[in-house]
Amino acid sequence: MLTELGGTWAVVGLSHNTTRAAFGVARVLQRYGKRIVPVHPKAETVHGERGYASLAEIPFPVDVVDVFVNSALAGQVADEAVAIGAQGVWFQLGVVDADAYARTRAAGLEMVMDRCPAIELPLL
Q1: Among 79, 85, 86, 95, which residue has the fewest nearby CB atoms (within 10 Å)?
Q2: Is the pTM of this model over 0.85?
Q3: Sign of the C-alpha dihedral, residues 58, 114, 103, 97?
């Protein structure tokens, strides 16, 4: 499962908005030893980690791309994850795109859809 993959997780949609699920999930990822990388058009620093406006701007390898955008945009993010050489893509609860799932798996990446690592990690 993706929770066992490397330690660098790009969290697409993460901002300072404490009411959004991405904010809390990123904190849980950090508690479990994952380095989070905020990816948001505002490129904000969140939880002490510098943000980037896009996946392509991250200047170091990313293991997992955690996707907190709506399903209509998620496929593009999955394609960008493939392009940057990520090992896996995680679509959060409610984010579903079967075509993106198929493309991502065909490219050799691990893929999780419609689940949350903040729920899965404590179960390991």
Answers
A1: 85
A2: yes
A3: negative
* Contact indicator for 9, 112 with CB cutoff of 8 Å: no
Q: What is the pLDDT of residues 19-75, one digit of tens each?
A: 999 999 999 999 999 999 999 999 999 999 999 999 999 999 999 999 999 999 999
Strand order in the sheet with 8-12: 35-39, 8-12, 64-67, 88-91, 110-112
- Bridge partners of residue 49, in order along the sequence: 46
Residue 91, H or E segment: strand 88-91
Cα–Cα distances (Å) from 84 to 17, 60, 79, 124, in that order, read 26, 10, 9, 28
